[in-house]
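Fold it.
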Amino acid sequence: MACYKLKGKGLTLVELLITLSLVMLLVTLSAPGLSDLMQKQHAKATVMQLRKAITMAKTQAITNNTFTTLCRSADGIACNGKWEQGVLMFLDTDGDRKLDKEDTKIAYLRFPKFDGRIYWRAFQNRQYLQLTPSGATRYQNGSFTICPQDGDLSAAQQIIVNRVGRVRYAEDRDGDGLREGSNGKPLRC
């Protein structure tokens, strides 16, 4: 059995500084790519959370045999603000799209890690989504478009809601890296 004797030598200060500089350079070069990846993941998580909310609203409308309203809300109390600030969901007994004392609040969803904009474009241009006791929309087929802050269209997502309340994601059908919306054209932010 051979025994080797190693002489331990440490790094000199110059070698340590060069090594640290190289590590910092590699981290700096990879940061934009990591940032883009994180942005895409936050947008994807927001889309999934929003889709679950729409599905939950439909289920609540059918189960409780009443209107269910989804609206943008900055405070979780009233329909106000912007979609990216939060989404208020409630059983809307009288169908007036206002959370009244006779209505029941179901949930208030926030998107804390998402940095961008959410747009709801629908037939009749109403800034809420209301589902009937049968689970269909109240003549509001439309789409939620999720846009990252930097406007990178490759990270844009869309949820398409048809009149009967069926939900689907926009897909990249032509392979160009951009999803096409319900109109067949690339998403715009």
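The domain at 38-169 is CATH 3.55.40.10 (minor pseudopilin epsh fold).
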